[in-house]
Specification:
Length: 107
Amino acid sequence: MSVRPLASWVVGAQVDDAYLGGERNGGKPGRGSENKRPLVVAVDTDDEGHPGMAVIEPVPGFTTAAFKVGYNDRLEKDAEVYSDGLGAFRAAIDLGHPSSTVTAISR
């Protein structure tokens, strides 16, 4: 399988955290399970908010330090970041990116 180089985000990126994997017999359930791999999912958006390219990338954990590396590699300097407010996503602000937090509405 070949891997294509990723383009930089141009206008904005919607980012969220996710896990891949599940509970094994005797394993710890939920976040932090040794059987789950943390991932960042990012979708670039145009001026009208329409989705473009998506990236799903494994990360060592949901930390600001881990996200700073990814943001430096993937985001144009003026790209705006939209997230659900996870603390690690503040790395975009630390690197000088405009940032807006999207808050989910509970039903």
